[in-house]
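Fig. S4 source data, part A: sequence.
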Amino acid sequence: MRRTTSLFLGIFAAAAGLALMAPDAAAQACKNRGDLDTIYCDDNNDLVADVPSDKKKLKNPSTIVFAYTPVEDPAIYANIFKPFTDYLAKCTAKKVVYYPVQSNSAEIEAMRSGRLHVAGFSSGPTGFAVNMAGAIPFAAKGNEKEFRAYHLAFVVKADSPYQKLTDLKGKKVAHTAASSNSGNLAPRALFPNEGLAPEKDYQVVYSGGHDKSALGVVAGDFDGAPVASDVLERMIVRGNIKQEQIRVIYRSAPFPTSSFAYAHDLDPALAEKMKKCFYDYRFPAEMTKEFNGDDRFYPITYKKEWEVIRTVAAASGTPYNKAQYEKETAQEKADEMKRAQQKLQQQPKK
């Protein structure tokens, strides 16, 4: 399974690399592009890619490929989302396949290459998905009144001596991934005002995920870690960690949680049908439990609801442009390789 997944990721990355080198000639005549990559256009100034004017470029696939952010173990969400993907198949009268992506960059590259049609992206990577992959965010998990928000929660082991952020100076602190909002960008933007500057006051170690950071703190691998509060809550509900094992010593203002977005070049009729399917769906009890009481997909737009996330990215010196995306993707892949090598070294010799 892992070998097959790695092969898919390689194909996605290669396809994305070719796309990066071959900008659409028609897009060069674009009147407004903003932060979008050169193969996209934003003439209506809504900050997301316009639908292609050439109808031949529109896609109406017989099979819809759906993915969800790898904020935790991807295998977990294949089962969690099965009631919804079964419903989406009936609602759209199309086959729906769940694809378990292993990293943020793999998910973004999959949509950019045209192999991923609709997906849930983490808060931070949503900006790269919009600008580098032509994603159009349209929904977030929520309830009847509002969409789900979460906080950056800095966790330490319950029996540790750390009471405030400045106590972590010189300690081992885990961030999740380079493009993560609460796991990396927000700490870089917010912590200096609290007296703790990442890279300056502590060495950043990338864990590869919010769940890995939290588990690493409990295990004593890290002295502390910034994680998404909703992920932390789900881990406690599932019993992955116990409430009494950790303490939260810092909590940020709220951020919007993961967005759900479709590829900009989907046939508009299919896109509208799929949006209605999302908005009409009500989570079954097991999904509501997994998602902290959320029971539906709440309508959002990237321009309005993601403004605070874009502000954090700019303040942290990590804007959602091509140069930063390539830098963070390279960092993410290097970290994945390092973790794989460490795992191999930890295996007992035969």
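Fig. S4 source data, part B ends here. DSSP finds 13 helices and 13 strands in the chain.
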